[in-house]
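Summary for the funding panel

The consortium committed to producing paired sequence-structure records for every protein in the target list. Below we show the first two records in order, beginning with the earlier of the two.
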Amino acid sequence: MSREFYTDADVANFKECQSLAYDAVVAVQKRLKVGTTEKEAAAMIDEEIKARGMTRYFHAPFAWFGERTAFKGFERPLNLGNFPKSFLPPHFGLKFLPTNTRLEEGMCVILDVAPIYNDASADIGYAFAFGKNDAIEKALDDLAVFRPLILAGVCKEKTMAEIYDDVSEAINDMGYTNCHAKYPQGVLGHKVGKIPTGLIPRIPFMRFELSTFLYLGVEELSRLLNPWDNHTALWSDYTRVSADPGLWAVEPHIGMAYGGAEAGGAKETFGVKWEEILHVTENNAYYLDDNLPHVNRWIKREIAV
């Protein structure tokens, strides 16, 4: 799976899947009300995805509100580096699952879903402020930095670890924290591809389907069996190779704490992200679609992208 090549028709399917997914979460944004829970928001995403003709998932919907958008108090799932030193087996990230946390005015919201359309998978993340919150709006603007930064690194054939470090350095320079470090394996991104849904039954686990584990797991198993093979479907800080040809869902996720005298000096935590598909070919790389909510936001606000 290291090197994946797609026809124009395939690429059109991936682009359509991504567009439909973003259309679904924007529709959910309009449906949210004060008091809506994360579980209810995730169910709304599922409704909107199915209304657009998609029934299978790379991963089912996630929704995070407030401080949970920064993964406050979360630990990285499947962190084998702490086992057996901690005498506790690696956990599966139960805290990431949607909860009964209720939406309040001024909260940050992240909606994340990865549907499959005509066997083409996509993975998107959409962040916004529910109501007025200047700190969140600024962070959403600051996310624009990472889109050209990641693309430039790929075009220069930097290793994924080098690009990861470039992103981390930019996050620190802007005064934010790296939230994607808490994803499984601390990924900045991961491969998406064609999932043969007709051949693999829908067997969900932790909001991921068996087909997803098979797609990502084959290459990871190969890498574990061959320690000299650095090729991987996961884009992390240890990936000492450049991005192989294929489709990569990249997801820079930044967080911060804010507060002031009006809040009695108390700090409130939030995180924001975007996630979209980067197409890497033999001699080029480009984002699959420029007509996406976060990109249109930056263009409207005259932020360079």
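The next record, for a separate protein in the list, is shown here:
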Amino acid sequence: MGKLDKVFQTLQDLEKHKSYRAFPDPLVALPITILYLCLLLSIPLHRVTMLIWMGLYPIIACACAGQTYGKVFLKSLIILPLCIFIGIFNPLYQHSVVATIGSFNITQGWISLISICIRGVFALQSVIILIESNGFISICRTMRRFGIPSFITDQLQFVYRYIMVILKETITMRNARMARGYGRKKYPLKMWSAFVGQLFLRSIDRSERISKAMSARGFKGEMIDYHTYISNMQHKLSFSNILYLLTWGTVLPLLRFTDLSSIFFR
């Protein structure tokens, strides 16, 4: 299985085995994740210890959702290059010494760079846990129930579906190229420009067919939730979901506004 096939399979797996009875419920997981992101990103850059304590949420949330934290952690490392690019110049102009380890002085610039990387990894982990435990489409429907305008949630669903359409067309063209390439692996730039052009035309043609099929099924500019009976069930949260909401609604502000390191490690 090639890289494109793995990506396509990953997108499909996001919607497989996703039950409306998943724990935590999307109506609980979404607001808790938003609260966590707001509190995490509001921590000052120099409070590294507070950022580390915020790492308790993705670890415990993984256990509650039945996921493996190691896999989530490895997936979240993809954001490190972006975080390093954002803060790479901080050590060059923030020279105030914060601590000294042996003969090495740790400046404020290095502290801010480390803080940016930590908060970026933790933020991505919370989003990964949210989507993998409930599914992207389910999250979009939950956003709609919270009052998010339908044109926003619908566009998110269309983007998600269109990515899968492009990937499927790319895999089809790649297989055709490999079947006619007689083992050839390298192609000139002129060939790749034609490949991209054909992919663009094929994806547009596929999108037009999908649009006609949606119109034939009654689409009038707004995604229809066919699972109305399940939607009614979602408004009846179980005791465990309510407890999850109240617990993290209390613990997360405590982690944000209290430096636990100064309490436990005096």
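Regarding this second record: Residues 228-234 have pLDDT under 50 and may be disordered. Strands lie at 97-101, 104-107.
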